[in-house]
Specification:
The structure holds two protein chains of two kinds.
Chain A (H helix, E strand, L loop, with lengths): L3 E2 L2 E5 L2 E5 L8 E6 L2 E11 L2 E6 L11 E4 L5 E3 L8 E3 L16 E3 L16 E2 L4 H4 L4 E2 L3 E6 L5 H11 L4 E9 L1 H13 L6 E7 L9 H15 L3 E7 L1 H14 L4 E3 L2 E2 L2 H9 L3 E2 L5 E9 L8 H9 L2 E6 L2 E2 L5 E2 L2 H4 L8 H23 L6 H18 L7 H15 L9 H7 L5
Parallel strand pairs in A: 9-15, 13-20, 13-21, 14-15, 14-16, 16-20
Antiparallel strand pairs in A: 1-7, 2-3, 3-6, 4-5, 4-7, 5-6, 8-10, 11-12, 17-18, 19-20, 21-22, 21-23
Chain B lengths: L5 E8 L2 E6 L9 E7 L2 E11 L2 E6 L11 E8 L1 E4 L7 E2 L11 E2 L3 E2 L14 E5 L6 E2 L4 E7 L2 E6 L8 E6 L3 E3 L4 E7 L4 E5 L2 E4 L9 E3 L10 H6 L7 E5 L6 H11 L4 E7 L3 H10 L16 E6 L5 H20 L3 E7 L1 H14 L13 H10 L2 E4 L5 E10 L9 H7 L4 E2 L4 H5 L12 E2 L1 H4 L1 H4 L6 H25 L6 H18 L13 H16 L7 H19 L6 H13 L7
Parallel strand pairs in B: 8-23, 21-26, 21-27, 22-23, 22-24, 24-26
Antiparallel strand pairs in B: 1-2, 1-6, 2-5, 3-4, 3-6, 4-5, 7-19, 9-10, 11-13, 11-16, 12-15, 13-14, 15-17, 17-18, 20-25, 25-26, 27-28
Helix pairs in contact in B: 4-5, 6-7, 11-12, 12-13, 12-14, 14-15
Classes of the chains: A alpha/beta, B alpha+beta.
The structure holds adenosine-5'-triphosphate (ATP) and magnesium ion.
């Protein structure tokens, strides 16, 4: 029997309180008022007081609205029929297609994978972005955010990798996404011909804030099912900072003591619960998560990027339109470098980065007006070549080609004993002078 | 006890559940209770009692819980089960064996499953070490079973107080861990059975030893930067704070493999599941060079990763410490690695916030400092009742918000540890791994173990200090060069800068992924470091800066190639000889 209540005793922020009995923690409800109905979820029980977060926000909710408890937690329809479809932030179709009533429903935000049933990831995902492939390769089942300030082309980079990576299923979770950005994603997937294996859950910037909380869970619940069925799933999430901001709003409405800049102390655990869904299942598929985390004020120590960095397996910094070579890091790279990829990969990577760091120092030194040594000239030359051949996002080459170009660049600028590479590798790969 | 206290749920707020008990019933702080929810019993721990209202943290998701659901109190505080058969296991924070749990859809953890931590059916060969009539105290050895490589003593219960007398002891034979192998009685005539397994409350330090000793022997990690510059002592404590991605976990992983310990306990506390998987999957294949057996045979993993329930994360560190203290009682050299203690502190913060306690700095509870101190204080080297020693060494990583060490967890940890291995963003960005910053790190054990370390070489500690000073000088020159350029500094300054770069590149930096470089034995550390200090002390006689640059680059490359060459191999000796020649010696020594 579905119970209905119509005495809302308190409305604070996006939380309402009703007096009710026999209600379960996490249960879903609808709140119905004049001409509007919104989903809500039980987030706290205290005696006969039930606290619900209202996904569409509480604006316009009146104390006399009707609250119906649905006797189940949040669910999403699941099946092959999801492919090619576009849903909004509460899982309703927004592409004009049919509602998927006949599909089985799965619960979202489920428990974590038993660590014992995970395997060590081994799959190298080639993106043809040399700053990624050579210096910080993406590995199947990795969770990796793109850290960027507002205005950087992060969604382009996300879409580009999403299209190239050969995943069985691509799931895009848009969180507070500008409508134009949504259209751009849709267009580029269409053009690349991957729309038929794509699912989108799109919460746009004009949708209610609390609804953002659902998007990663919807996307990841679907991903998890495909993964269990043996599919290799790539989940793209943009922008997780908008997600964290919704957590903050709820925490403030619940009078929680904030730990840092208003964010709740549970921010780390809340983000980790989502990112940890990235997995390589033993004997089944995998989930790779590539997310965008915009950095308020371009500050990486802001609680959202900071907590994210502690959770994810590295990060790509997108700065001035390029993937930064220094802060960017793929933590799973050692699982594929030199193992799945060519044996010289690791040596080239380390040496080129070290020398690039040195050439930046030289640039700084010269900018301060110091004399140039002949050595400096070589570093400057190297720096320019590095930018043109590797850093520039326009460069579109495969890994092996990029490695060869790396040796060539080193040989053009340095002698073998300056590059700090093991002799065996030098003997084998150092380009011979003609 | 059939007459257990029961209660009913009156409030649910995330993992914090409040139950109301009948008036006049007893309940204990830290008592384990089970909350009944949709046919499952969810384990929880009492964390506050106010009249009839009992606050509990539930170690599982509380989704589906309802007001009025029943709560059972167990009458027992949260405990670990200790005995033969723990090695090689992978436990969750509450000591559930993860490999034996049933999984939803084959992959996902199901809540409400609790299994015995030890194999109750396994048969052990027991040999008595004591005899009828012997007097025993808590922790004294009654007998022994063989577990893998070593004898695993069976102790008189660690919780005993006073003197007891053995009234019965089983003969050598095959027993299960719950079988009684002895009976003992005390002066008051109280008589109890002793089994091979026993329980210990995880939040209580184990003290069944004669005395604590000052840590004065080195615990070798085979990480040069630690062993040479900021050494660890057996029974000592260290922390590794560092911003994300600076290398805390890789450093701990490498230590867990190559440290010279008998037992390694890895507590994966609120970090990534993927990192534990590497250990779980790789350790069984790796050989422990000291014993020739699989590394897993000396390892216990306690795993409460970041997406597992937060309350159990808090428990995981205590479970790890309890296991560590238990092995110390067996006279073993135990190393506990906790990654990351900040996640444990955050779990405290989350529960404190739900209890609506007055928050301290950055919303951490005011008792953070004492809790951190209490955790690290459980490490130590002890003399046991039988005169042998056992040690528990603890290394905790710390994940400071924003990478800023001025935050409460880092600061309170620094107050209590014996060594500080601070990782810096600038070193990790430059890929100078391990990114332990020599200019901010310290170890009190360098002085405390001076005599021990000088067994390596009579001037060892002096040379270490001298080299450490060179690092500081080199850094100062480098800073100066950034302002005045290379032409603005003197030739001797340039040379000391270059010397410091050689030390950095060839001794401090150590490639965790290179088969030769990742671990450096004691003997190799001695030989290589002494040669390096010959270079540090050498008075080079350069005519100009260009010559200095050329020569020092050559020298650096020789040291560099040497460190990647297998110890005492042909290449290695070749490079040594060449370095010796450059330093004007026939054979470097
Ligand atoms: N000693 C090392 N040798 C080579 N690479 C290293 C070393 N230490 C760290 N790295 C590189 O840095 C990455 C991050 O290291 P690690 O995971 O240990 O960081 P962390 O400090 O534990 O970060 P977090 O706080 O986010 O867990 C590794 O994946 C590896 O690529
Ligand atoms: Mg780590």
């Amino acid at each position: 029997m579905i119970k209905e209540y119509n005495l809302i005793s308190r409305i604070q922020g996006d939380i309402i309180t009703v007096q009710a009995a026999g209600i379960r923690n996490g249960e879903l409800a609808t709140v119905k008022g004049q001409g509007r109905s919104s989903l809500a979820q039980v987030i706290r029980l205290q005696g006969d007081q039930v606290f619900l977060q209202v996904f569409a926000g509480t604006r316009g909710i009146s104390t006399g609205d009707q609250v119906r408890f649905l006797k189940h937690p949040m669910q999403v329809a699941f099946g092959e029929a999801l492919l090619g479809r576009i849903f909004n932030g509460s899982g309703q179709p927004m592409d004009g297609g049919p509602v998927l009533t006949s599909l089985p429903k799965i619960e979202i935000g489920g428990p974590s994978v038993n660590p014992i049933r995970r395997i060590i990831p081994r799959g190298f995902i080639e993106t043809r972005v040399p700053m990624v492939d050579v210096f910080n390769p993406l590995v199947e089942s990795q969770k990796l955010p793109i850290f960027a300030a507002a205005g950087e082309p992060y969604n382009e980079l996300l879409a580009r990798i999403g299209m190239r990576a050969n995943a069985d299923v691509v799931i895009l979770g848009g969180i507070g996404l500008k409508y134009d950005e949504y259209l751009k994603f849709k267009n580029s997937f269409e053009q690349a011909g991957v729309l038929s294996r794509t699912i989108m859950f799109i919460h746009t910037a004009s949708d209610p804030v609390v609804e953002r909380l659902l998007v990663p869970d919807l996307a990841l619940a679907a991903a998890e099912q495909f993964g269990v069925q043996g599919k290799r799933v790539l989940v793209l999430l943009s922008d997780m900072t908008a997600f964290a901001d919704a957590l903050k709003e709820i925490a403030i409405s619940m009078d929680q003591v904030p730990s840092n800049l208003g964010y709740p102390g549970s921010l780390y655990s809340d983000l980790a619960a989502r990112y940890e869904k990235a997995v390589d299942f033993e004997g089944a598929g995998s989930i790779t998560i590539l997310a965008v985390t915009t950095m308020p004020g371009d500050d990486v120590t802001h609680p959202v990027p900071d907590n994210t960095g502690y959770i994810t397996e590295g990060q790509f910094y997108l700065r001035k339109g390029v993937v930064e070579p220094f802060g960017s890091l793929s933590r799973l790279k050692q699982l594929v470098i030199g193992k799945v990829t060519r044996e010289d990969h690791g040596h080239i990577m380390n040496s080129m980065i070290r020398l690039y760091a040195k050439s930046r120092e030289v640039e700084q030194k010269l900018a301060m007006g110091f004399d140039k040594t002949p050595e400096d000239d070589r570093y400057l030359d190297y720096s320019q070549k590095f930018y043109r051949r590797f850093l520039d996002l326009k460069v579109d080459i495969g890994l092996e080609q990029a490695l060869d170009l790396g040796w060539q660049t080193l040989a053009e600028c340095f002698s073998p004993d300056e590059v700090g590479i093991k002799q065996e590798m030098i003997d084998k790969y150092w380009p011979q002078k003609k | 006890m059939t007459d257990r206290t029961v209660g009913k749920v009156v409030s649910v707020n995330g993992p914090l559940v409040v139950a109301e008990i009948d008036p006049g019933r007893e309940v204990m702080q830290n008592e384990v209770a089970y909350v009944h929810c949709q046919g499952q019993a969810l384990k929880s721990e009492v964390i506050r009692i106010r009249g009839r209202q009992v606050d509990m943290q539930v170690f599982e998701s509380t989704a589906g819980l309802m007001i009025g659901d029943a709560v059972d109190f167990s009458g027992q505080v949260l405990s670990a089960v200790l005995g033969p058969g723990m090695l090689g296991n992978i436990y969750d924070g509450l000591q559930n064996p993860l490999a034996l749990l049933e999984n939803n859809q084959g992959f996902f953890l199901k809540r409400g499953q609790y299994l015995p931590p030890l194999d109750e059916e396994k048969i052990w060969d027991f040999v008595p070490l004591a005899k009828k009539g012997d007097r025993v105290k808590a922790g004294e050895y009654l007998g022994e079973v063989t577990e893998g490589l070593f004898g695993h003593p069976i102790m008189a219960p660690l919780a005993l107080s006073g003197n007891w007398e053995i009234t019965e002891i089983s003969p050598a034979g095959k027993y299960k861990i719950s079988s009684h192998i002895a009976r003992i009685k005390n002066q008051d005539g109280q008589e109890i059975n002793v089994a091979m397994k026993q329980e210990w409350p995880v939040k209580q330090p184990m003290r069944a030893y004669r005395e604590r000793l000052l840590p004065d022997k080195q615990l070798l990690t085979q990480c040069r930067l630690i062993d040479i510059f900021f050494p660890l002592a057996e029974g000592g404590t260290a922390c590794i704070p560092g911003p994300f991605g600076a290398g805390k976990t890789v450093l701990q992983q490498i230590i867990s493999r190559y440290a010279e310990a008998d037992i390694v306990i890895i507590v994966a506390c609120g970090e990534r599941a993927g990192e534990v998987v590497e250990t779980i999957r790789e350790f069984p294949q790796l050989e422990d060079p000291q014993t020739g057996r699989s590394l897993m045979d000396r390892t216990v993993i306690i795993c409460n990763t970041s997406s597992m329930p937060v309350a159990a994360r808090e428990a995981s560190i205590y479970t790890g410490l309890t296991l560590g203290e238990y092995y110390r009682q067996l006279g073993l050299k135990v190393l506990l690695l906790a990654d990351s203690t900040s996640r444990w502190a955050q779990a405290l913060r989350e529960s404190s916030a739900r209890l609506e306690e007055i928050p301290g700095e950055e919303a951490f509870p005011a008792y953070l400092e004492s809790r951190i101190a209490a955790v690290y204080e459980r490490a130590g080297v002890v003399k046991l009742h039988n005169e042998s020693t056992g040690s528990l060494t603890m290394i905790g990583s710390v994940s400071p918000a924003g990478g800023n060490f001025e935050e409460p967890v880092t600061q309170n940890t620094l107050k209590v540890v014996g060594a500080f291995h601070g990782l810096s963003r600038s070193r990790s960005d430059q890929r100078r791994y391990p990114a332990i910053d020599p200019l901010i790190s310290w170890s009190l054990y360098l002085r405390q173990m001076e005599d021990f370390l000088n067994l390596r070489h009579p001037e060892w500690v002096e040379r270490v200090k001298q080299t450490h000073k060179l690092m500081a000088d080199g850094h100062a020159v480098r800073q100066m060069m950034l302002v005045v350029g290379e032409e603005g500094i003197s030739l001797p300054d340039l040379v000391s800068y270059q010397k410091s770069e050689i030390v950095d590149a060839t001794c401090l930096q150590q490639d965790s992924f290179d088969p030769v470089d990742r671990a450096t034995s004691r003997q190799r550390q001695i030989e290589d470091f002494l040669l390096l200090t010959e270079m540090v002390r050498h008075q080079f006689d350069f005519e100009n800066k260009q010559q200095a640059r050329d020569q020092m680059t050559r020298l650096q490359n020789l040291f560099f190639q040497m460190k990647y060459s297998p110890y005492q191999g042909e290449k290695y000796t070749g490079y040594r000889r060449e370095i010796g020649r450059m330093l004007g010696k026939e054979e470097a020594r």
